[in-house]
Amino acid sequence: MLSVLAGEVTVAEAARRAKVSEQSVGNWKRQFLEAGKTGLAAGRSGPSTREQQLEAEIAELTQALGEAHLEARVWKKSAEGRPGPSRTSR
């Protein structure tokens, strides 16, 4: 198919090699070009829906990690002021 697009092979030759009709090769070429345009347009418009989902998940996990870190610091600070268990009381 790429050789047809590059002009290295005619549609008729590509159809003969693939043992399909010229119409099929023409349809493939049209679909390929349309998909390429769509792909390029999507790239310019910003991240895909999946990329947006992953970025939101990363932000959520980063926030949760930060909150857990702060909680651990608070627990550590509060434990520093308390006397620990006595070694003589077993």
UniProtKB/TrEMBL annotation:
**Which terms in the Gene Ontology molecular function aspect does this entry carry?**
sequence-specific DNA binding
Pfam families in the cross-refs: HTH_Tnp_1
Q: Which InterPro entries match?
A: Transposase_8, Trp_repressor/repl_initiator, WH-like_DNA-bd_sf
Entry coiled-coil feature ranges: none
| Name of protein | Transposase
